[in-house]
Amino acid sequence: MLLGESSAAVAEADTTGLFERDAITSRRVRKVSADAVADADDPLAVERWLRIILNGREIAALMASPGHEDELGAGFALTQGFIRTRRDLLSVTVRADAEKGPAVRIVVPLERSLALADRISARASCGGVVYPDDDLPLLPDDGPLVQAARLRDMARAMVAAQGIYKRTGGTHGAGIFTADAEPVVVREDVGRHNAADKAIGHCLLADLALADKVLVVSGRVSREIAAKAVRAGVPILASMSAPTDAGVDVAERCGVTVVGFLRGRRMNICTHPHRIDVGVHT
Question: Active-site residues: which are they?
Answer without folding.
Answer: 126
